[in-house]
Amino acid sequence: MKKLLYGFSLLAIVSCKEQLPVIEPTVITEKTPNDTDDPAIWVNPNDASKSIVFGTDKKTNGGVYAFDLDGKIIHEKSIKNIQRPNNVDLEYGFKLTDSTKTDIIAFTEREKQQMRVFSVPDMKPLDGGGFKVFTDATELEHNAPMGIALYKSPKTETIYAIVGRKSGPKTGYLYQYELVSDSLGVHANLVRKFGDFSGKKEIEAIAVDNENGIVYYSDEGHCIRKYYAEPSMGDEELSCFGGEYFTEDIEGIGIAKYQDKGFVIVSNQQAHTFNVFDLKTNAFIKEINLGTIETDGCDVTTVALGSKFPNGLFVSMNDEKDFFFHDLALLNLE
């Protein structure tokens, strides 16, 4: 949520940011027509240097834009004329009916109260025009989808979409849908409602640690919440942490995992910085300044993406209709 600051002077926030050295981006993308919001990184399994970053452009005439690693828009891979796409996520190896597999992206289309699912990299719709979400909602903003994250169960290889919304109840704010393919096509079946909400602002950013089966989401004015992503593990909250380190809105979440350690990187939106937490302990590690303004979404991969990003890639939305790409080593996580 980008909005005026409450209880903080702009001068104070700018001064706070200036105290941190700016880590200059490796690449700044071409601009989208309207309002960038959230990215997702697809690692090309055949040639990592030809990987794609997808980023939403949030407006009634919006889209999901594809960028190469030089930050240039790949128009033939972009999905346009989407009615207010909000967040986007990506998963690998979705099983189709003919036993083949495809990578997929999923994103929310807020003004149509639905989520969309497309194959990657051929960018074909798999959803018959969209899957309606929050169909039992009785209040207007309770069926306006915003955040989305895909989770692939390491036990069953089932892929789920976990979807958030503009507003919702104090419990059961998130809906989790199982994506399945049969002779009639692809379906999204609701499997559970979970997740607490403070009621202070809204919940948008959602991210999943697939290997550990954990979902994180930003209760924007309160904390980072942590639950099991596997439905069979139950709906008990595992942690509510980090709120004291944020100026106001807790926004985009990226999870960087190495063999022996991991990090949760979260946008401190009104401070124009990012807070880094330990993946195992939730402990605060440091604050970093990547030069972005009012960052909503972010994504990260530790996979080497050719000569330009040999240490992995961190992508963050910048409130000037573009995205910043940083070689992951620049963040000094290890």
Automatic annotation (TrEMBL):
Record Pfam families: Phytase
What InterPro entries does the annotation carry? Answer: 6-blade_b-propeller_TolB-like, B-propeller_Phytase
Query: Which ranges carry the BPP domain?
Result: 13-334
UniProt GO MF annotations: inositol hexakisphosphate 3-phosphatase activity
What's the protein called, per UniProt?
3-phytase
Q: What is the lineage of its organism?
A: Bacteria, Pseudomonadati, Bacteroidota, Flavobacteriia, Flavobacteriales
